[in-house]
Structure formats: C-alpha cells, structure tokens
Amino acid sequence: VHRIGVFTSGGDAPGMNAAIRSVVRTSLHMGIECVGIRRGYHGLINGDFVPLDFDSVSGLSRRGGTMLYSARSEDFKSKQGLERAEATCKLLGLDALVGIGGDGTFRGLLTLAQKGLSVIGIPGTIDNDIACSTYTIGFDTACNTALESIDKLRDTMLSHERCSVVEVMGRHAGHVALNVGVACGATVVLVPEKEVDYEEDVMEPIRRARLAGRTHFMIIVAEGVEGGAYGVAQKIHEATALDTRVTVLGHVQRGGAPTVRDRIAATYMGYEAVRLLAEGKDCRVVAMQGESYVDYDITEALAMQKGLDQQTYTVMRVLTGV
Ligand code: ATP
Hints:
Elements: E1 3-8, H1 16-29, E2 33-37, H2 40-46, E3 49-52, H3 79-92, E4 96-101, H4 103-113, E5 118-123, H5 139-157, E6 162-168, H6 175-184, E7 188-190, H7 198-211, E8 216-222, H8 228-240, E9 244-248, H9 260-278, E10 284-289, E11 292-297, H10 298-303, H11 310-320
Parallel strand pairs: 1-2, 1-4, 4-5, 5-10, 6-8, 6-9, 7-8
Antiparallel strand pairs: 2-3, 10-11
The protein binds adenosine-5'-triphosphate.
Adenosine-5'-triphosphate binds at residues 9-11, 41, 72-73, 76-77, 101-105, 107-108, 111, 125.
Active site: 127
Protein name: ATP-dependent 6-phosphofructokinase
Organism: Flavonifractor hominis
C-alpha cells in the first residue's frame, strides 16, 4: 500500500476526528501517504480531497464532528457513481480506502472492493448499532451528553410534580436510551426493540414510584419508539392526569468533544485499520469484542445481528422496579 484515502460517511460522531488523526499518523509512520476525502462518497465521486500530513491533524483528537465533513450520497450507489469514485482513486493513485461510518458506509466499501481496491471500515456512529462490534466510536460521548442534559432537567423538574419524557437518539436501536436510562435512574426506559405494554411497562412503574413517595418521574424514550416522546407523553397524561413535559434532545447528542473512551477507541481503531492494510489484509471491518480490538470480513460483518444488551436490559428492569 502506497497511498490511503480516508473519509467519514453517514451520520457524524464524536471521535471521528481522532480516528482520522490516527489513520494519518500511523500511515506516515509506516511510510504510507494519506489523502483525506471530504464529504464521504459524495467527495469520492467529485474528487473533493485534501492531502494530509502529520501537522494537518494536530490537535484533532479533542474536536467533535469531522474535519473531513460527512455526507450521504445516492449517486454513489449508481453504476456511473461507482465508476466516478473509481476514477478518483485512479487519478489520485489511491490503492486503499479507510471509511469511518456505519453499515451503509461498509456496503459502499464492499462495492469498491469488488473493483479491486483494498478497503477497511471503522465503526463510527453514536447509536452503537454495528453488529460486529460491541462498541462504536461516538457512543460514550453521546451518552454522556444526553446524561448531562437529563441531570440538569431533573434539577429543575424536581421542584414540581411532573413527568419528564425525554427523547434520545436511536431510530432502530435502544442502546443510548438503555444506558442513559440506567445511568440517570429513570422511572421507565422505552426502546424500539421491545413492544410497549403501556399498562405494565409505563403506568404501573409510575404509580409505584408515586406510592413510594416520588413526585417526579423520568421517562427515557428512544426516538424509534412508536409515537416518539410526544406520543408517550400523551398516553401518560391520559392515563394518570400527570403534567407531562417533553424534551427532545436531538442533534446536541452528536456534538461535543469526545470522551476518553471515544478518543482511545478511535485512536486504536485508526491504528488497526492501517496495520491491517500494511499487512496486506483488506475488505475488513475493525471492531471491538469486549476490551479487545478484532477485525471481520466486511460481508461477514454485515450479515451479523445485534440485539439489545440483555444484561443491561435486565438491570434496567430490576432498578426501575418493573
Ligand atoms: P449511520 O449509522 O450514521 O446511518 P451509515 O454509514 O450507515 O451511517 P448510510 O447513509 O446508510 O449511513 O450510508 C452512507 C453512504 O454509504 C450512503 O450515502 C451511500 O453513499 C453509501 N451506501 C449505503 N448503502 C450502500 C450500498 N448498498 N451500496 C453502495 N453504497 C452504499
């Protein structure tokens, strides 16, 4: 491998910058050049790039977002789009690509691998919903950001007899909701993976908390739960007459300086990606299993399934008294 192209794609996540920095510096250490592709596959099609050296990634670890910008590109999925992406790689002399993103990003890498390019994927998404990896870059920061907001919300809500319904990110996966819910001591946590029995899962825990003397109730809802936070709040109000207040945390959860955990995971994964390429391996996804860094064939990785963490779910049910 002589020259690597690195890009971020799909939704951005805190720690992506630390991964870029790591890819660049590890490459240079191994005598490999690095080119940053801006705006994911959109930039690959349009030749939107920036050469990266040791100094150009200096101080990047602590910055949220991604210096290479991120994008989604429908054009890339077409035959012509793929040909244009291939042409950019030829023009710039890129023999390998490192893509940081989610499953969609890995699917894109697979199509480029079929054209003969060496590709490596790094899991970067705040949702922690990549099946082959127990951890994805950005998850810890997103959970901490949500938790900080919820703690503040609780301070103000404690003075009133109210029910806070907070919507956190997670259209298809409840990992953020579950972890944040356990960490903040929520009354109820709702995730898209489990069908909601309102009487048993929501109203009864609220009633029991009230009977135990609580006057404030914290309900954490993943955005993918049917009806979202507003729908859930409406149902609670109808059943209990409680004054419900909805807070949708939204994109603040994607921002901010990455936590130690995200900086370290991103740095190791960036290092691993280049190490694999330097050893002649390709078409792999760098992943974590427990505290270890491992790698999987992309096709194999995409075929894997990840459910909700049952252990955390059980702990949540016990602690919320369901
Ligand atoms: P997130 O977890 O934030 O959604 P993601 O990487 O899964 O991240 P997607 O929007 O699904 O985000 O994918 C990013 C880009 O990857 C798409 O805009 C598209 O250019 C490319 N891509 C996705 N699926 C495919 C596919 N089946 N074939 C080729 N390219 C794809």
